[in-house]
Design brief:
By secondary structure, this protein is of the alpha+beta class. It has one domain. It is built from three helices and four strands. The strands form two sheets. Strands 1-2 form a two-stranded antiparallel ribbon. It has a two-stranded antiparallel ribbon with strand order 3-4. The mean pLDDT is about 80.
């Protein structure tokens, strides 16, 4: 299914409910590859204690890399990416 999504002034988008319902997570990794946004569901496991989560090792590594890039000023606001790629 293809949809045209509009971002808010802050660069946020809402995923269609039909898409969200396909996954048992509210966590997604996002990347830009070859001029496309790629969202991938992130698997998390819930502990018995309420509101505590554990990420898989692969996801932890992805988060560490993304956070380091963000702290180094390498992250790009969604609105800028959309403008750059004509989205």
């Amino acid at each position: 299914m293809t949809k045209i999504l509009q971002s808010t002034p802050r660069g946020q988008i809402t995923l269609p409910k039909a898409w969200r319902d396909q996954f048992s997570t509210n966590y997604f990794s996002a990347e830009v590859k070859k001029g496309q946004f790629i969202l991938t569901p992130v698997e998390v496991r819930k502990f018995e204690a309420e509101d505590e989560w554990e990420f898989t090792e692969e996801t932890k590594k992805d988060i560490e890399v993304a956070w380091a890039e963000h702290k180094a000023g390498k992250s790009i606001p969604l609105a800028k990416v959309m403008k750059e790629y004509g989205l």
